Amino acid sequence: MRITVVTAFPDFLKSFLSTSIVGRGVAAERLVVDVLDLRDFADGAYRQVDDYAFGGGGMVLMAEPLAKALEKAAGDGARPFVLGTSPQGAVLTQEMVESLAAQEHLFIVCGHYEGLDERFTRRFVDMEVSIGDYVLTGGELPAMVLIDAVARRIPGVVGKESAVEEDSFFRGFLDTPHFTRPSVWRGESVPEALLSGDHEVVRSWRRRQAVLRTLRRRPDVLSRANVQPYLPCGAYVALLHHPVLDRLGNVTTTAVTGLDLHDISRTCTTFGVRRFCVVTPLEGQREMVRTIVAHWTEGYGATFNPKRGEALRRIKVFPEFRGMLRWVEKKERNVPLVVGTSARSRKGAVHWLELKRRIVEDARPVVFLFGTGWGLDESVLASCDVQLQPIRGGEGAYNHLSVRSAVSVLLDRFFGWR
Ligand code: ADE
């Protein structure tokens, strides 16, 4: 990976780029960092890089020297991804860092004074980044923060990949507490789990602590976190074809559709859901599902598109939903939390974020029930442990998502990371 920084104060970055982990990454050429002195691209004897703001105010970095520096950095190759440091930018998060680390070449403009001439920003800057809601004297510290955060995502820069994975904001969660020798210090000993020598015990203790810390200290980050690696048990999606409602509100049985099988199993696989349970009392329909799954997992489909088989393999068919819940309980050796979903509001329905908090705290398997037709029958919803509030678009009363869309939206809220 290559990073070019343009600054009016290049000395600022010198020791940073030759010290510690970033310094080692640069020395080992895991990343190449070029620092360009903005004054080298300025005209005139004074090599002027800034001027007064039109309309009054402080100094503004001029567009032309910045554009020339960018042209030099790009050379004959592709234009780099251009970042401007500014308190007006989007506040940096770990997820933004992950996507920046996937770029081949970053070009960071260190803002100063009142910032950059807006015409340069409009024409060339792909993303303005702030490192927090406070104002610094210049963009060099933010540029170093960006380089540091991106560098540790480049393979080989931080020695042990697992250390990076388990760090703060791994999938949006805070880090676990850490301890070192001696095991007893001033009468206080290290938690027993960490001394157990059992890798699985250590891992689950750490994940639990990360959950508790996040809930206590930063509940705000939970909405954007992927809770999947922190669930001690599995998550399941079930699609019920009976008992569901028809257009007139009568209980009916719907037909299985191929689109649902393909699309929901793909969504479940993307978000790490253990099984997609298809529930229908009609043996002919169950047989059809098995035939479709076999085509994609063992038949011609398996060679035509193996990725599809990987998803459809998650499908398991059941004649009846209570039997399906017993199967989950047996498999997980734990009673699942059953979550009902509906496009209709129901008294006591909870907000998805409340349920997200609960599933990481409860340490139980979770089954999300979705209905086909006009939705799950009241008898099913009444038997659920929790019902989720409907997904709302905020545009009038129309509320008719396909079940495939509803599954995607909900799984993204629980197991997506942003
Ligand atoms: N320049 C000045 N303050 C800044 C901040 N908080 N983030 C990014 N760039 C800045």
What is the percentage of strand-forming residues? 15-25%
Taking all Cα atoms into account, the compactness measure Rg is 27 Å
Q: Give a quick account of the main beta sheet: strands, pairing sense, barrel closure.
A: 6 strands, parallel
Mean of residue pLDDT values = 94
**Widest beta sheet: strand line-up:** 14-13-10-16-15-17
CATH H-level name of the largest domain... which superfamily? SPOUT methyltransferase, trefoil knot domain
CATH topology of the largest domain: Alpha/beta knot
Low-pLDDT regions: none
Kindly provide the name of the CATH class of the largest domain: Alpha Beta
Number of DSSP helical runs: 17
- Domains (count): 3
Structural class: alpha/beta
Helix content: 25-40%
DSSP strand count: 17
* First and last CA, distance: 23 Å
Task: Give the CATH architecture of the largest domain.
Answer: 3-Layer(aba) Sandwich
Structure description:
The protein has 418 residues and is of the alpha/beta class. The protein has three domains: 2-161, 3-Layer(aba) Sandwich (Alpha/beta knot), CATH 3.40.1280.10; 184-225; 233-415, 3-Layer(aba) Sandwich (Alpha/beta knot), CATH 3.40.1280. Helix content is 39%, strand content 17%. The chain has 17 helices and 17 strands. The protein has helices at residues 11-17, 20-27, 63-74, 94-101, 118-124, 140-151, 161-165, 192-195, 199-217, 258-270, 283-297, 300-304, 306-312, 321-332, 352-362, 378-383, 403-415, and strands spanning 2-7, 32-37, 50-52, 59-61, 81-91, 105-109, 127-130, 184-185, 188-189, 235-240, 244-245, 251-252, 275-279, 315-318, 337-340, 366-371, 386-387. The strands form five sheets. It has a six-stranded parallel beta sheet with strand order 14-13-10-16-15-17, sandwiched between helices. A five-stranded parallel beta sheet has the order 2-1-6-5-7. Strand 8 (184-185) and strand 9 (188-189) form a beta hairpin. Helix 3 packs parallel to helix 5 (118-124), helix 4 packs across helix 6 (140-151) and helix 10 runs parallel beside helix 17. The model has no long low-confidence stretch (mean pLDDT 94). The structure holds adenine. Adenine binds at residues 85-87, 111, 130-132, 134-136, 139, 142.
